Every structure is written in structure tokens, then in C-alpha cells.
Amino acid sequence: MALTTRRRALTTLGAALTGTLVLPAGQAPAAERERRPGPLWPAHAHNDYEHPRPLFDALDHRFGSVEADIFLVGGQLLIGHDASELDPSRTLESLYLEPLAALVKAHHGSVYRGRRRALQLLVDIKTEGSSAYLELDRRLRRHPHLFTRYAHGRVHPGPVTVVVSGDRAARTPMEAQTERRAFYDGRLSDLGTSAPASLIPLISDNWTQNFTWAGEGAFPDAERQKLRGITGAAHARRQRIRFWATPDTAGPARDALWTELLAAGVDYLNTDDLAGLEAFLDARPSV
């Protein structure tokens, strides 16, 4: 990361923590964030890095999970959706790991002050999974007290839980480790297998490949029962459920689908519309 870019990032972070920065319109200062209601744990920021302020926009909207796509390039873990848009200054370390470490230090052990539940950081590997995971593992180990850790059969909770998604080859080196600071994002095909929640705490899959309903009209009873069977089976094994490719255009169809997902016990709602999901969840105080 270039020195000037690093200084700018650290200055912005420090100001966000102290509330001293003159912020752009619509950006909440730290003091205002502290007065807001608690985190919205089911809220998942899909492609979080595409927002103007990666991580911090999601935290301002009180999200419980953020997603970062990574490419292993020349030993660096670069952030982006496509290889053509990568910027050497936009690394996983600079946009996520360093800011999270600073937040947890400032908040005395948690991402959200006074909230012990872990923020989920979903890391989607876009290049070959095994080599990218091993580099990710090296970088996570630089922050020994930041991440939920698996060690010799036990899970030790931390302020941030890293879940690795994307290229499936990452699973092999992860399964071989007796100690790691990341977990694996399974698919519906992993549901009910011998893989424990200590390896696969999250099951994610494509909504459109498993369901026909997109929020218009009535939710077919057979699909509602299928969805509830999925969440029931996952929760019985202490696993959480997330679907991607759900409708994300504001309107009645999206609200109807989100409502059904919550009613069925789906753990994370996927969106690029941070304000829209925040407003939806705030209208449901039991969430």
C-alpha cells in the first residue's frame, strides 16, 4: 500500500473513531453511530467493497456481515469484483483487517461497542483457492486476538469471524489444519454431511437455482416447506443459512421475499442496498 494511501486510510479511521472529521453529506460521525440502536445481525453487505467507504458504510448501517472478494496477485490479496478493476492500494489488509483491528482495540474487544457477538467477514476467493487461502491464513495470523479461532477441536470466539467462500479448493488446506482463524462457506450439498459446524458454520447457495419464487404473488407452499426444512436442518447442526442472487430491487417483491426468508429462519439477508435493508429490518423490531 502506498504511504500516502495508508496515511489517508489511518487518518480517516482515526477521525471516524473520535468523531472529529468533517464528513461528507449523509455520513454519520462516530458519536451518532454510538447512539443508534443495536447491530442488525441478519444484514449482509454483498460486494461491500463497492461502496464509497468499504466496511465503514456497512457499519454505519449496523450490518452484521460484510463480503470482500479477493484476488491473489504477486503475493498481495487485492480487493475487487473483476481482475480488470484491481488497484494495488486496495488490499484486504488496508480495507478490512487493519480497520477492524483498530475498531476492536478502540471498542475494548468488539467491533460494535458493548456487543460481544462477532462481525462476520465473508472472504470470497476469486483466484485459485488453495494458494489464496494460505496467503489469507498468513495475514490473519498477524492479528492473533482479532479472529474467531479453531484449535484442536474447539472454537474460540473472537470479535470477527472470517468465513472463506469462492473457489472450492480452499477447503483442502483448511481441513488439514489443526489450528486456523477462518471457516468454510458450505453449499446446500454440504447440509447434513459429516462436516461439522466447526469447519462449516455457514451454508450459502444461489436462490434462483433452488427456488422459483422471486417475491411476486404467493410463495408456493412446497417451496416454503423446502426453505424451512433447509433452515431447520442447518440450525440443528448449529449452521447458519444465506442465499445470494435474491431480488435486490427496492419494492414489494423484495420486501415479500425478505419477509419469507426471515420467517423461515434464514440467518443473513443479502443486499447491495445498505439503507434499504436497514430500513426493512428496523421496521421489524423483533429481528
Automatic annotation (TrEMBL):
Transmembrane segments: none annotated. Keywords: Signal. GO terms for molecular function: phosphoric diester hydrolase activity. One of its GO terms (biological process) is lipid metabolic process. Residues 1-30 form the signal peptide. PANTHER family: ALTERED INHERITANCE OF MITOCHONDRIA PROTEIN 6. This is Altered inheritance of mitochondria protein 6.
